[in-house]
Each structure stands twice: as C-alpha cells, then as structure tokens.
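Sequence in, structure out.
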Amino acid sequence: MAQESTSRFFEDLEIGEEYTSPSRTVTEADIVNFAGLSGDYNELHTSEEFCKNSTFGTRIGHGLLGLCIASGLFTRSDFYLQTTKNTIAFLGLSWKFKGPIKIGDTLTLKLTLIDKKETKNPERGIFILKREVYNQRGEIVQEGETQSMIKRRI
C-alpha cells in the first residue's frame, strides 16, 4: 500500500489513473445501524417479511448506506493515501444507484481519474474521479463522479 508521505500534488495527477480499494462485506448490523442513524426505517431495509414479496426478495441496504461505504472504501485506497495531505476540499458529487446492495454483499470501489482542471488561483487545482462500487459478482451497484480541490506545487 502507498505511504501517506507520498504527498502528491495537482501536477502529479495523470488522467486515466486507476485504483481499486480493499473490499468490505455488508452486514445486517450495518443496515440496522444505518436505519437508526438516518431515521430511515423503510420496510425495504427493516422487514424481511415485507421484502419476501418485493422485487428484491430480501432486505436491501439503503442507497445512502452504499454511498457512505464507498466513501469509507475511498479512504482506504492508495489514491487517497497519496493525496490526502494536499487535498483542500471536497466540492461535490453526482451519484447513481444502479442495483441493490444486500446483506452479505462484498463491495469494492474502483477509482479512475477522469479530469483535472486548473483554477484561477495558481495555488489550487480540481480533480474529478469516477467512482464505481462493485459487488462480489462484478456488478456495478452504484457509481458517480466526485470533484475535489487539491494544492498545486508552486
């Protein structure tokens, strides 16, 4: 795994770079705890009996739980470890929920640097990451793009 001391700057980033995070298995406790934290007790997440007759046939994780797990997986990626000391701000995201996340699914995050832009401030730049969350079957269950600001080497 890359060392945090790598401290990459805007100029060091190359469009097309790809990274894969470690994996994480979703547990029943994750879904129950997220329901309590968020206050979202929708039966798709909390009632196995209700879900037996649903499209999914079983309880599924909250969409935002998947996004939160993706965020956590990002912090375990080499890209994060290489850029965290110089990242200034998270600027936003666009996100799509493509498929269900079920108890027992093992999720992995794939990152691709798809763009970088200079800003008016010569001390900063912006990078855009494509993020894809895969389950153990290689299916994309969530995906999106994020923008972050990073220091420039001046």
